[in-house]
Amino acid sequence: MKRHTPSWLANAFFYEVYPQSFLDTNGDGIGDLPGVIAKLDYIRSLGCDAIWLNPCFESPFGDAGYDISDFYKVASRYGTNADLKRLFKEAHKRGMRVCLDLVAGHTSTEHPWFKSSAKATKNEFTNRYVWTDGVWKGAGVPAISGFSERDGNYVTNFFHFQPALNYGFAKPDPKKPWQLPVDHPDCLATREEMKKIMRYWLDAGADGFRVDMASSLVKGDTDFKETMKLWAEMRDMYEAEYPDAVLIAEWSDPICAIQAGFHIDFLIHFNDPAYTSLFRSEASRDLFGFFADIPPSFFDRKGKGDIRVFLDYYMKHYRKTRGAGHISIPSGNHDIMRLAEGRTMDELKVAFTFLMTMPGVPYLYSGDEIGMRYVRGLVSKECGYNRTGSRTPMQWTSGKNAGFSTGKAKDLYLPIDPAKDHPTVEAQEKDSDSLLNHVRQLGALRRKHPALGGDGDFEPLHAEKNRYPFIYRRKLGAETIIVAVNPSAKPVSLDIPFKSLRSLLTELLAKGVTMKHTADGVKFEMQGISHGIFKK
Ligand code: NOJ
Ligand code: CA
Fold this sequence. Notes:
Helices cover 24% and strands 18% of the residues. The protein is α/β, with parallel strands linked by helices. The strands form four sheets. The chain has an eight-stranded parallel β-sheet, covered by helices on one side. Strands 13, 14, 15, 16, 17 and 18 form a six-stranded antiparallel β-sheet that branches. Strands 3-4 form a two-stranded antiparallel sheet. It is globular. The relative contact order is 0.10. It binds 1-deoxynojirimycin and calcium ion.
């Protein structure tokens, strides 16, 4: 069946809002939905036309809201359901879209489904979660024993308070009758509940969902076949009922995720080996440390990185998913090290030039546009552990609490980056050469030139093992754009012997790059840490 891709996606540019750290409007120290509404024009000014909002539902906040206790109710610390609907409306007025986070694989142990499921007596929710049939029998996967009077262990998806919802097992072990098949009526009921939740928010005005740990639903699914079938069924629902809405995967294996039915999959450059191992995808292994320095990052002034580590993986997935869905390389997210770690503003500009000119859908993690830093030495908040340093409040102004909140510093969700020279939106707005304005320029360029968008062709022109720079061509219809990035501090000059490039003339955006025509192509002269975008 030919699937429909919402046309707005080809030119979309997403902004990830971590609501608790974005803007606090009532002085309680926690960011809230009215804060997101107040900053819609700011988000739009970056060129972003879509938002991914991290979980904002009722939760004991064991894992920052990835442990939901009521999927139908906005957490009071963020506001009300009416506030969320107002956010949809205000965003739509500005031509923007809002996608929510669907934590499809687990709930909080505080969810009423789980409380019923934990009872010894059989009830409608007994099989809503994956439980073994006796506390003395191991589940073979992480599970919690001795939780309640129910004689069994529940399987967890992440932390101990995130019990796995039951979508069944791909190949149930006949010796373990507690492993239900995917088409067991109780497992199908779980699917239907997820559809109901999606319909509820899509009907209320949401434009789609980013799905948390999308590959984790069906247990024992080593080749992901059953998980993919499950998402294909969800996509059918979108095709039939919400053709303009999107499904975005946290899967990090675009070939699988897009074939399964997702419109977008993230290539997540996790940078903690242990955290990475939680994600079974090839990407998590191959992209490990793409931006972090393990192994040496390509985007580093030391110039020791290898673009092929990324590109070989990327090209394989790009070729197989082209036309069917989009790959997204986020600038960062709430789980990984800040992009600014170890980079100067000029280096960040080079990284953003790359991120904003690749095919697919760019994602900007709130704060990365001003180069917000990873804050060290914080006590873990809501099971953030080493992720906590990437979750500090947005730095808006030079005023109290960096303009994030009028509350007392001790009440803030997390402390403001204590560095005296921490970047702020206010300062960077005034500086035409700031990272913020560079990101704005890139956002505007992407919008103006469809060749740079999600549907434009992509062809590497210079991408050699352990060599700099990285040069590539984007093309759509009559429009051709060449992007050159040299993250290394070493200057480099390079001939590209392509006659077709000889008519390349206009510089759209460049720093430290000149391009001269030669007898058989063009010559790029690139200073250390430079970037350039040229148009035919
Ligand atoms: C991935 C989310 O991005 C992360 O923050 C969360 O802790 C886990 N999934 C568990 O839901
Ligand atoms: Ca608040």
